What does this fold into?
Amino acid sequence: MLNGFKDFILRGNVISMAIGLAVGAAFTAVVTGFSTAFITPLIGLATGSVGDFSTAEFAVQGAIFPYGKFLAAAIAFIITAAVLYFCVVVPMAKVQNRFTKEEEVDDIKAALRDCPRCFSAIPAVASRCAHCTSEVEPDPEAVSLAKLPVQR
It folds into this structure.
C-alpha cells in the first residue's frame, strides 16, 4: 500500500502541481503586498481619505462592517488577474497560435454538411442523402476540390 502512495507522490504531475501551488501562493502574497503598500494608499489619497482605506468600516446597530478589507482584497484580486492574463494567458495564446497550423481537410470526401431535408450529416460531395434518400445538390466547391466529375 505504501509503494502505491510513493509512486503517486513521485509522479511528475503531482510534484509539478505542488510547485505550481507554492509559486502561486508566493505570487499572491507579493501582489497582495504590492496592492496594500502602493495601490490602496494611492486610491485612498485620490478619493480624499487619508492614505490607506483598508481600515475603513461602518457600523449598523453595533455590527461592524470592515468594507476596506474587502476593497483591498478586491484590488489585489484584480491586479493578480490582470498580471496573470497579460503576462501568462496572452503570451501563451500567441505562442500557441504561432505553432498551430490551420488544419485543412485532407480528404475532401470526408468533409460533411447537413442535409437540407432531414438535417443529418452527409458528405459534402453527396448527391443523395443516405438517411432520408432525398436528392441534394452536391457542394460545387467540394466536388471541384475532390476532382470528381460534374454530375448532371
